[in-house]
Amino acid sequence: MCIRIIAIIPIILLVLLSPLLIADYDPTDRYRPLRGGILVETGYWEYYCEPMIGCWWEINGLSDSTLGYTAYKNIGGEDIYGFVIAGHAVDYESGWYIYQPNYDGPTVNYVPVTGENYIGGIDYDISQEADAVFEDTSSENVTPYILRPVGFAPVNDYMEYSEVIPGVTYVYKMGVATSETCGIVTRKELWYNVSGHTYEYVIFANYTGYFGDSGGPVYIIVGSGVTLVGHVLGGYTVYGEAYFISVTSDESHLGIYPYCSSSIPSPPEGPTPEDNSKYFGR
Question: What are the angstrom distances between the C-alpha of 20 and each of 228, 269, 270?
Answer without folding.
Answer: 23, 12, 12
